[in-house]
UniProtKB/TrEMBL annotation:
PROSITE patterns: CS (PS51203), SGS (PS51048). Residues 32-122 form the CS domain. GO terms for molecular function: protein-folding chaperone binding. PANTHER family: PROTEIN SGT1 HOMOLOG. This is Calcyclin binding protein, putative. It comes from the Eukaryota. Residues 137-217 form the SGS domain. Coiled coil: none annotated. It comes from Plasmodium gallinaceum. InterPro entries: CS_dom (IPR007052), HSP20-like_chaperone (IPR008978), SGS_dom (IPR007699), Sgt1-like (IPR044563).
Amino acid sequence: MDNEYCNLDNIFSNTKLNELNKLRNIKLVVNDKIIRHDWSQTSDNIFFTIYRKNIQKNDFLYYIENDYIFLTIIINEEEIYVIENFLFSKILPSKTKINITPMKVEITFEKEIKELKWNEFIKIENSINLKKKENILNPFSGKSTEEWNKLTKSIKEDDDEGSIDSFFRKIYNEGDDDTKRAMIKSFQTSCGTVLSTNWKDVQNKNYEKEISPNGQK
């Protein structure tokens, strides 16, 4: 990448959210502490900076709403870096300006409520709930092949777009084999208390032991 700014101000265009989620499911997400970032503010704007050298513009993907951001950096063919959070207050997404330099990514958000001082960049409560969202689903127990098939069928059917079930069905239907395998195993072996899409985490996990006092259900 040359030493000039790659200015995305005039071509602001969100990546589809399902594409970012799919990318997260098939790639290894690196630790969020590996890449440093910080923020500052004025009365009208929030400035968010990600310190990563030599990011190509095609390797920086984003989905920005008025109170939510999902930023993704493609590090290599196998790894990505993700920042997903709800914001402290609302912004004007269409006013967002993004500059990619040889040393960092600079994002300028315009506050919806001018003069409002943000105490934090993210809304802590919503961000905690965001991390927990894949651990919520209606209970389903059992380990037989027949029951696994029933679960698979139930996920594919009953497309109620207003329900949380529909959200998980969408992830399942758009996921690869490892994603589906992870969802089924985690859901089954945790008696419906955990639903994970990360097969690397799930394949050797013993949820039954974790949720059972003294190893008993």
